[in-house]
């Protein structure tokens, strides 16, 4: 009888609540207004001949490298950040080895690492969801082969100090250190191209968030030239489709569109943090395009009330240390104004305020 490998049977399942997402999408950290008009124009120009050809990735890697200010040999385009994580795990992890992952964080680090048969070691966040630098350093040993860090982190929005990440990479020279900068545009801090001094360092980015291309699935993995040669051996030469590759140059060319959207989301983030502060609602300062907040037992009622008014927000209670927490994405100025209007309406209800409890139960505290 056909049977999947042992580690597959014990994998955690990740089922994002994607069904019935009608309304203002403030639940998945997506670009809430869509991609650049230049991308839409390019889509309309595509013909059947392009779709009949196998995709050619190399020319676009040169374009992305120029945009990032690095060399083409340091770049691998991937099918979203998910594939970048998968490729790192497949390249460097073997059964019985260890992967260190700070939690709470993006679920796919654990899933892809565990699928190789490696042992996943979760390292809980420090107080107020600060990056657990010292605890993570203490966990490094001769079996450590992967350290994955989302920076800024999801779902907390916290940013690990650059110097701490460099310390970790230096302390684990035999481990692949993946720094996932999916929310880089909203934070503005990067480790590129530190791999020239730290050959075990990799940095990934995505075009799903600020660029509004989540449906096209385009990511990029960057790293040391010799190590990237190894990762390329695991990657399919046709991992990105022709439509995504055709649209990428137009997305990159319209930096004004990206900058304007990022600016509005960041302004909205600051205003949301002020709004929560005014209501006495515990939240954590964010460097991404979302804010994590604590509603305790009233979280489900808050989420339902927002949905009833056409706004989707994300329950993060199942994440380690996030019981009672809700995450809200920020969007354009008009969308943020609508969010604040609805938020004030809901929070102003006496029966809702009466159910708010002290946030002391939240692990991040």
Written account of the structure:
- The chain has 365 residues and is of the alpha/beta class.
- It has two domains: 18-30 and 256-357, Aspartate Aminotransferase, domain 1 (Alpha-Beta Complex), CATH 3.90.1150; 37-253, Aspartate Aminotransferase, domain 2 (3-Layer(aba) Sandwich).
- The protein has 15 helices and 13 strands.
- The chain has helices at residues 6-9, 37-45, 48-52, 58-68, 80-92, 108-115, 133-139, 162-171, 184-187, 225-234, 242-253, 255-279, 299-308, 333-347, 350-353; strands spanning 24-25, 75-78, 98-103, 119-124, 144-150, 176-180, 201-206, 219-223, 283-284, 290-294, 311-312, 314-315, 325-329.
- A seven-stranded mixed β-sheet has the order 2-8-7-6-5-3-4, with helices on both faces. The protein has a four-stranded antiparallel β-sheet with strand order 9-10-13-12, with helices on one face.
- Helix 8 (162-171) links the parallel strand 5 (144-150) and strand 6 (176-180).
- Helix 4 packs parallel to helix 11 (242-253) and helix 5 packs parallel to helix 6.
- It is globular.
């Amino acid at each position: 009888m056909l049977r999947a490998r042992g580690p597959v049977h014990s994998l955690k399942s990740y089922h994002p609540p994607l069904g019935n997402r009608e309304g203002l999408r403030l639940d998945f950290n997506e670009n809430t207004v869509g991609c650049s008009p230049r991308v839409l124009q390019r889509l309309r120009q595509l013909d059947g001949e392009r779709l009949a050809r196998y995709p050619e990735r190399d020319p676009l890697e040169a374009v992305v490298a120029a945009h990032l200010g690095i060399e083409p040999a340091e770049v691998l385009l991937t099918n979203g950040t998910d594939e970048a994580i998968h490729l790192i795990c497949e390249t460097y992890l073997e059964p019985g080895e260890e992967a260190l992952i700070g939690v709470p964080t993006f679920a796919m680090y654990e899933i892809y690492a565990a699928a190789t048969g490696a042992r996943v070691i979760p390292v809980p966040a420090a107080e107020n969801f600060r990056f657990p630098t010292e605890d993570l350093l203490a966990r490094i040993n001769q079996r450590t082969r992967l350290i994955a860090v989302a920076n800024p982190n999801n779902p907390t929005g916290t940013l690990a100090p650059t110097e701490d990440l460099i310390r970790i990479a230096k302390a684990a020279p035999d481990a692949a250190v993946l720094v996932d900068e999916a929310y880089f545009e909203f934070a503005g801090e990067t480790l590129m191209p530190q791999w020239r001094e730290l050959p075990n360092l990799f940095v990934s980015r995505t075009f799903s968030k600020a660029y509004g291309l989540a449906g096209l699935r385009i990511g990029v993995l960057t790293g040391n030239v010799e190590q990237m040669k190894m990762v390329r051996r695991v990657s399919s030469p046709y991992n990105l489709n022709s439509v995504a590759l055709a649209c990428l140059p137009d997305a990159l060319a319209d930096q004004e569109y990206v900058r304007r959207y990022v600016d509005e989301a960041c302004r909205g983030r600051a205003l949301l943090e002020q709004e929560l502060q005014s209501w006495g609602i515990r939240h954590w300062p964010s460097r991404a395009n979302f804010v994590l907040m604590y509603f305790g037992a009233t979280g489900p009622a808050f989420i339902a009330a927002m949905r009833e008014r056409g706004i989707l927000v994300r329950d993060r209670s199942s994440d380690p240390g996030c019981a009672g927490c809700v995450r809200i994405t920020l969007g354009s100025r008009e969308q943020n104004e609508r969010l604040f209007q609805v938020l004030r309406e809901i929070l102003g209800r006496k029966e809702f305020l009466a159910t708010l409890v002290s946030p002391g139960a939240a692990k991040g505290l």
